[in-house]
């Protein structure tokens, strides 16, 4: 068995990491995504433990006054955080974020893609608006919980954490959103529907397929009463 503190894994565990990884809390606690990158994609630059810790500290230190009164912090979930947050969630509110929209603008050569079967991931790009879910991570053990989030969202530096204001049924809420890093080499901007559909249909990697990611996101948005017509259109095209 692996040791969560030392990060040591037996040979069988190492082999399983190379074959497939299900995004779970345990995987994040053991930092297995990092270990997979180090083993399979050693050329990919990763944020260090110190980088992630420093980023969390900087974000918490710059919380706007309205966020400081909250027990913990809110995260803005617009993709897989909706249906698989992997951290403790004390409260949820459907919400709308103005100034950013959801877009498949992040190319994947790993994770839900490989160099041979690249895929696409959602990110928040400037402009428009986006419906999603505000997830309150409670204040108890907050940095431990945020470390799991940062290991998931910030490992390669493709996203940037930003304080944003969310419109909810209980009033405005300050939360943290992970928006696209426009200077990252995986950012490809808005693509044609034909390109997006092709990459979503064929993209598959150690974390699963892009089609599964799209279906889960659309399904959970529907369950919350949220319609994203572009995602629905892409889902129909991928299925056909």
Kindly describe this structure.
This protein has 240 residues and is of the alpha+beta class. It has ten helices and seven strands. The strands form two sheets. The protein has a five-stranded antiparallel sheet with strand order 1-3-2-4-5. A two-stranded antiparallel ribbon has the order 6-7. Helix 8 packs across helix 10 and helix 9 crosses helix 10. The radius of gyration is 18 Å and the shape is globular.
Describe the secondary-structure layout.
Blueprint: H1 11-19, H2 25-29, H3 32-40, H4 49-61, H5 65-68, E1 73-77, H6 80-83, E2 91-108, E3 119-137, H7 142-153, E4 159-168, E5 171-180, H8 193-202, E6 204-205, E7 208-209, H9 210-223, H10 229-239
Antiparallel strand pairs: 1-3, 2-3, 2-4, 4-5, 6-7
Helix pairs in contact: 8-10, 9-10
Shape: globular
- Integer average pLDDT: 92
What is the N-to-C order of secondary-structure elements (H for helix, E for strand)? HHHHHEHEEHEEHEEHH
End-to-end span in angstroms?
43 Å
- Radius of gyration (CA) equals 18 Å
Number of separate domains: 1
Low-confidence stretches: 1-18
Count of alpha/pi helices: 10
Q: Please report the first level of CATH classification, the CATH class.
A: Alpha Beta
Largest sheet: 5 strands, antiparallel
Q: β content, as a range? A: 25-35%
CATH architecture: Roll
**Helicity, in percent?**
25-40%
Q: For the largest sheet, list the strands in their spatial order.
A: 1-3-2-4-5
Give a count of the beta strands, DSSP E runs of length 2 or more: 7
CATH topology: Hypothetical upf0131 protein ytfp
């Amino acid at each position: 068995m692996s040791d969560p503190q030392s990060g040591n894994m037996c040979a069988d565990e190492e082999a399983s990491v190379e074959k497939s990884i299900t995004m779970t809390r345990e995987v994040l606690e053991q930092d297995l995504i990092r270990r997979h990158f180090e083993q399979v994609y050693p050329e990919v630059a990763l944020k260090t433990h110190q980088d992630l810790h420093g980023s969390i500290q900087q974000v918490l230190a710059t919380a706007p006054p309205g966020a400081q009164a909250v027990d913990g912090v809110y995260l803005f979930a617009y993709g897989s955080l909706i249906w698989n947050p992997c951290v403790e969630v004390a409260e949820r509110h459907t919400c709308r974020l103005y100034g950013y929209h959801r877009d498949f603008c992040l190319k994947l050569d790993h994770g839900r893609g490989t160099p041979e079967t690249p895929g696409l991931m959602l990110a928040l790009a400037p402009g428009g608006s986006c419906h999603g879910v505000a997830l309150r991570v409670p204040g108890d053990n907050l940095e431990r919980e945020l470390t799991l989030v940062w290991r998931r969202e910030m490992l390669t530096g493709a996203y940037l954490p930003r304080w944003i204001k969310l419109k909810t049924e209980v009033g405005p809420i300050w939360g943290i959103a992970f928006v696209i890093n426009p200077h990252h080499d995986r950012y490809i901007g808005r693509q044609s529907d034909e390109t997006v559909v092709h990459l979503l249909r064929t993209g598959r990697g150690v974390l699963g397929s892009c089609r599964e990611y799209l279906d889960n996101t659309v399904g959970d948005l529907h369950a919350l009463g949220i319609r994203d017509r572009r995602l629905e259109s892409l889902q129909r095209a991928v299925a056909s």
